[in-house]
Design a protein that fits this description.
Layout (H helix, E strand, L loop, with lengths): L15 E6 L3 H13 L4 E7 L3 H11 L9 H7 L2 E4 L6 H10 L3 E4 L2 H6 L2 H9 L3 E2 L8 H10 L1 E11 L7 H6 L10 E7 H7 L5 H10 L5 E8 L5 E9 L2 E9 L1 E2 L2 E5 H15 L7
Parallel strand pairs: 1-2, 1-3, 3-4, 4-5, 6-8
Antiparallel strand pairs: 6-9, 7-8, 9-10, 11-12
Length: about 280
């Protein structure tokens, strides 16, 4: 006689405690999703931002003032798993702290992992799991599979509205005033490492592709803008022994942060749901 199926829910004391490091648009969206969509397996245990007002605003929206932490160390102590979505010149050092504490994590600042490969080596050495979501692009599964056969050519063309690129270090360095642009204009062409340094808040998708395909030496990046652009568009093209792949995503900008795409936040939520779920879909 078959035993009846019984759904077993984790008791609160056995739920994974998730901390949110960075309370901007993406961190706030993921925090709300943890509460609403992952409550059977996890609980939101802590939030922190280097700008205290952002943490206060998020805790108010969530109705949970007790979640606010006064330091990264306090958040680490209160969490089993940490979502990194912080905008800081020291993001690589912050990720290093999480790895040193042997925490598993979801990293949204993927460019930092490409610029500082020692972080990945350290994580592998001490057993910290790093989850990198697909972000605002399609085709990561296919790119990972294509890597096995070998990739010979690969490029990304990113098209963003003017307001989505304002404040990028590259613009100041080159003396580019985007407000003077009247038509579609290429403002950057070069390698992926150069692109990430030039546009640290705009081109994390390039870092994700570079890591997934292990092609940082041949991946070429173009960035274009125009006052007529309304969406964040990413076009990926690659060729190899597997054949050819082309993907295009046309993303709505995040209402609270035009420098990133709404899909990037949704991808972070989907990655968490996959990590804590019992069914894995895709490579």
């Amino acid at each position: 006689m078959k035993k009846p199926f019984v759904m077993i829910k984790r008791s609160d004391e056995h739920k994974h405690k998730i901390g949110i490091l960075g309370c901007g648009a993406i961190g706030s969206h993921i925090a709300a999703a943890v509460i609403r969509q992952l409550q059977s397996e996890t609980e939101l245990s802590a939030i922190y931002d280097i700008v205290p007002e952002k943490a206060k605003s998020l805790s108010s929206k969530l109705g949970r003032p007790a979640l606010i932490n006064t330091s990264i160390e306090a958040l680490i102590s209160a969490s089993d798993f940490i979502v990194e979505a912080i905008n800081s010149p020291r993001t690589n050092e912050i990720i290093d702290k999480l790895i040193t504490a042997k925490k598993d994590m979801l990293v949204m600042s993927v460019g930092q992992l490409l610029l500082h490969p020692d972080l990945l080596k350290k994580a592998a050495g001490n057993g910290s799991k790093i989850i990198i979501p697909s972000g605002a692009i399609a085709g990561i599964d296919a790119i990972k599979a294509a890597k096995i056969a070998g990739i010979k050519e690969i490029s990304i063309t990113t098209k963003k509205p003017v307001q989505g690129l304002l404040g990028a270090p590259y613009l100041k360095k080159k003396g580019l005033d985007l407000q003077t642009i009247k038509e579609e204009t290429e403002i950057f062409s070069g390698g992926v490492l150069e692109a990430i340094k030039a546009f640290p808040q705009n081109i994390n998708v390039a870092a994700t592709v570079a890591l997934a395909a292990d092609v940082k030496d041949i991946l070429r990046i173009r960035i274009c803008t125009s006052p007529a652009f309304k969406y964040n568009v990413h076009e990926i093209r690659l060729k190899g022994d597997f054949g050819e792949i082309m993907t295009v995503t046309q993303n709505v900008a995040f209402p609270d942060n035009p420098k990133t795409s709404y899909l990037a936040a949704l991808s972070g939520v989907a990655a968490l749901r996959s990590f804590y779920g019992n069914i894995k879909i895709g490579t």
